[in-house]
């Protein structure tokens, strides 16, 4: 079971129960099949659904690694980019996650990921890793020679937050949004945390918060997990879930947290003021902080 497969969204608008009905939209986004279902009067669900494709298209145009014309692909190809506002917002979130994770969250991991996926020597690619070598001057972002970025550990959370904000502006008061990561309007929304090896291991309730889950064993590259650390350390947990007010932060910090010891997880929870961290080790023992 891959970590990010599809988007499902269920929302309830404030309305008389007799007026509520379900409307849905299906398509593709972020390399996966997606679907959106809203519950409420058609005067609200129709316009809200109509906005979903355009919102997700904006995310694709900025952060897709698979579109040669995306802003991220252009940055990786030429080494610099004059960032549009949303790109600047995500880069600022990367700065925050890099700091809070003590450098374990690092978007410059992309050359290392490519080398591992192709079964190449990791040494030259690892030498390119280093978020501190990415420079910003005004709205211009510049990479060090040979560097490339990936936002696969944060863009899904960013998209989730974007859709949640759009629904709130439309008047949704009860919504659960999932683009690989979950964010809630209202609640409680009850979710299961699942591990690739152990299956469902815990349930969590979201009430206006977000949760992101990383499982190193969900996908394997040549040398092991698809989640790679900047310094080569192995993952210490089978699954990590991070709960926060922001799906963007939860996404990034869950990616980094798989490499942290129990004490480091405690430090992260306090310094980032996270709602909760749930960690499952390889033997199936569950830790909740």
From TrEMBL:
Q: Which domain of life is it from?
A: Bacteria
Keyword check for Magnesium, yes or no.
Answer: yes
Question: Which metal ions or organic cofactors does this protein require, according to UniProt?
Answer: Mg(2+)
Q: What class of enzyme is it?
A: transferase
- EC number in record: 2.7.1.180
Quickly give the catalysed reaction. Answer: L-threonyl-[protein] + FAD = FMN-L-threonyl-[protein] + AMP + H(+)
Query: What InterPro entries does the database record attribute to this sequence?
Result: ApbE, ApbE-like_sf
One Pfam family of this protein, by short name? ApbE
Which SUPFAM superfamilies does this one have? ApbE-like (SSF143631)
- Protein name as annotated: FAD:protein FMN transferase
Kindly indicate where the leader peptide sits in this chain.
Answer: 1-22
Keywords carried by this UniProt record: FAD, Flavoprotein, Lipoprotein, Magnesium, Metal-binding, Signal, Transferase
Any one GO molecular-function label of the UniProt entry: metal ion binding
